[in-house]
Write a structure and sequence with these properties.
This protein is of the alpha/beta class and 501 residues long. It has one domain: Amidase signature (AS) domain (Amidase signature (AS) enzymes), CATH 3.90.1300. The chain has 16 helices and eleven strands. An eleven-stranded mixed beta sheet has the order 1-3-2-4-6-5-10-11-9-7-8, with helices on both faces. The protein is globular, with a radius of gyration of 21 Å.
C-alpha cells in the first residue's frame, strides 16, 4: 500500500518503528499536493520550507531517543481561519489577503507541541460563510470524488485535502455544519466537538457562540487522535470548559455498541432527503441493530425552527464580529489617497474586500440587531435556541446518542446553487441543531448513494462533553462497514490524474 493511503495511525506506527522518517513522509505529501492540487485547489498557501525544517527536527528528536507524541511527524492541513504566526491567514477573503498574524491560535500551539507538521493553509468559504467553498475570494475547491462538484463548506479545502490524500488529517471549523457536511460529501470523517471543549482563541470569528474547531481524518481513530491533541481548557478563551478530556482514542478502538440506545430523530428525515442518502441511512441503522444496538425513535419538534433561528443568530454575530475589518488596523485598505475621510476609506475597503455572501449576512445581521427589531428577531431566535437544547435534553433521556443523515444530498455541481442562497442554506438542515445547542457531532461515510455513486454521510450526535460516545459508535460502524465492503471506504474513490497513490 502507498504510504499516502495509510491512515495517520499507521503512519505514526511506521514513524515510531523508524521504517520511515518524518522528512520522507512530509516530502511524499508535498509531492501529492504538487501532482493533484492544481485541479483540487484545496490549499491557499503551502509552508514547505518550515514544514520540512520541522520534520527534520522531529527526526533528530526521534534519533536521540526523545519521548514523542503519537502524532509526531504526521502532516496536517490547517483551515485558513486559524491564526498561525508569520503565515498568511486570509479567511478566504480579499480583505485579509497577505495578513500574517503575530501569534499562534491555541489550537496551533497544541499541534506544534505534539510535533504535528502543518503543511499549509486550506481554502474556505469567506469568513466561513457557505456550504460549498464557492464563496472563497480565491476560487472554489473541487471535490476529489468528482472534480465538477463542490467539496462542501465552509471547510471544503480541509476536507478535500484529506480526501485527495494531500494530508492524512486536517483541521476545520463548524458553525452550522461546516466540518460534518464537507466530511459527508467528501467521504471522510469529520467531528464537531462540544462547544468550548477546544479553544477558540486565535480562531477568527464568524459567529462566536457557534464556531468550533475540530478534526477531519480518513478514520474515526485518526480523528480521535487529533481531537485528543487539541482539546482541553484554555484560560485565553472565556468560553473554554475547564473539565477533564474524555479518552477519545480508547472509545474509537472499543468498537462495541451492544446495549446502546440509538435515537433516530424523526424531524431529520423524510421529505427533502435524496433517495440514495435515505437508503444508506436505513441500511446503517440495520447494521447497528446487527451489532446489538437498540433503535428508538425520538421527536425534537423545535428542530423545524433551527434553520430560521440560525440564520438570525449567525448573521447577527457576524455583523458584530466583522465590524473590526475597518481598513484602519490591518488587512486591505482601498482609496486612501490622503483626501478621503476615514469613513469613505472604510466604505471603499469593505466594498472591495468583502464578497457577496458576507455582505448579505452583514446586512441581515445588522437589520436583526437594529433598534426596534432586536427582540423580535435576534431575541426570539435565542429563545428558539433554548427550545432546541431542551429537545436534545429530552431526547437524550431515552437514547445514548442520536443519529441522522449528515446532509440531505450528496455533493452537487459547482455553480448549481450559487445564485440561490436559500437552497444553499438547506444543506445544513441536519447539522445546525447541534451547533445551536452546543453539543457534539460526528459524520462518517456510510456508502455511495445509488443515484450518483457519490459519498453519503451518517451523523452521530451526543450530549455536551460526551464526545467519546461519538467515537464509540462511529468506530463500531466504521469497522462493520469495512468488514462488509472488504476494504476501507476511500478505496472506492476514483484516482485523480497524476496522483502518487
Amino acid at each position: 500500500m502507498s504510504l499516502l493511503k495509510k491512515t495517520a495511525t499507521e503512519q505514526a506506527q511506521a514513524l515510531a518503528a523508524k521504517q520511515i522518517s518524518a522528512t520522507e513522509l512530509v516530502q511524499e505529501h508535498y509531492a501529492q499536493i504538487k501532482a493533484v492540487d492544481n485541479e483540487v485547489k484545496a490549499f491557499l498557501y503551502l509552508d514547505e520550507k518550515n514544514a520540512l525544517a520541522q520534520a527534520a527536527t522531529i527526526d533528530k528528536k526521534r534519533a536521540a531517543g526523545e519521548k514523542l507524541s503519537p502524532l509526531a511527524g504526521i502532516p496536517l492541513a490547517l483551515k485558513d481561519v486559524m491564526a498561525q504566526a508569520n503565515v498568511p491567514t486570509t479567511c478566504g477573503s480579499k480583505i485579509l489577503e497577505g495578513w500574517r498574524p503575530p501569534y499562534d491560535a491555541t489550537l496551533v500551539t497544541k499541534l506544534k507541541a505534539n510535533d504535528v507538521v502543518i503543511l499549509g493553509k486550506t481554502n474556505m468559504d469567506e469568513f466561513a460563510m457557505g456550504s460549498s467553498t464557492e464563496n472563497s475570494a480565491f476560487g472554489p475547491t473541487h471535490n476529489p470524488w468528482d472534480l465538477t462538484r463542490i467539496p462542501g463548506g465552509s471547510s471544503g479545502g480541509s476536507a478535500a485535502a484529506v480526501a485527495a490524500f494531500e494530508a492524512p488529517i486536517s483541521i476545520g471549523t463548524d458553525t452550522g455544519g461546516s466540518i460534518r457536511q464537507p466530511a459527508a460529501v467528501c467521504g471522510i470523517v469529520g467531528v464537531k466537538p462540544t462547544y468550548g471543549s477546544v479553544s477558540r482563541y486565535g480562531l477568527i470569528a464568524f459567529s462566536s457562540s457557534l464556531d468550533q474547531a475540530g478534526p477531519f481524518a480518513r478514520t474515526v481513530e485518526d480523528a480521535a487522535m487529533v481531537h485528543a491533541a487539541i482539546a482541553g481548557f484554555d484560560p485565553k478563551d472565556s468560553t473554554s470548559i475547564n473539565s477533564p478530556v474524555p479518552d477519545f482514542v480508547s472509545a474509537a478502538r472499543k468498537k462495541d455498541v451492544k446495549g446502546l440506545k440509538i435515537g433516530v430523530v424523526k424531524e431529520l428525515s423524510g421529505d427533502g432527503y435524496q433517495t440514495g442518502v435515505a437508503e444508506k441511512f436505513s441500511q446503517t441503522l440495520d447494521l447497528l441493530v446487527s451489532l446489538g444496538a437498540q433503535i428508538v425513535e425520538v421527536s425534537c419538534p423545535n428542530f423545524q425552527y433551527a434553520l430560521a433561528a440560525y440564520y438570525l443568530v449567525a448573521p447577527s454575530e457576524c455583523s458584530s464580529n466583522l465590524a473590526r475589518f475597518d481598513a484602519m488596523r490591518y488587512g486591505l485598505r482601498v482609496g486612501d489617497d490622503g483626501q478621503r475621510s476615514a469613513e469613505e476609506v472604510m466604505n471603499l475597503t469593505r466594498q472591495a474586500g468583502f464578497g457577496r455572501e458576507v455582505k448579505r449576512r452583514i446586512i441581515l445581521g445588522t437589520y436583526a440587531l437594529s433598534s426596534g427589531y432586536y427582540d423580535a428577531y435576534y431575541g426570539s431566535a435565542q429563545k428558539v435556541r433554548t427550545l432546541i437544547k431542551q429537545d436534545f435534553d429530552n431526547a437524550f433521556k431515552s437514547a445514548d446518542v442520536l443519529v441522522s443523515p449528515t446532509a440531505p444530498t450528496t455533493a452537487f455541481k459547482i455553480g448549481e446553487k450559487a445564485n440561490d442562497p436559500l437552497a444553499m442554506y438547506l444543506n445544513d438542515i441536519a447539522t445546525i441543531p447541534v451547533n445551536m445547542a452546543g453539543i457534539c457531532g460526528l459524520s462518517l461515510p456510510n456508502g455511495l448513494a445509488s443515484e450518483d455513486q457519490l459519498p453519503s454521510g451518517f451523523q452521530i450526535m451526543a450530549p455536551a462533553m460526551a464526545d467519546d460516545r461519538l467515537y464509540l459508535v462511529g468506530g463500531a460502524i466504521e469497522a462493520a462497514l469495512k468488514d462488509k465492503w472488504g476494504k476501507p471506504f476511500w478505496e472506492f474513490a476514483p484516482k485523480l490524474k497524476g496522483s502518487k497513490c
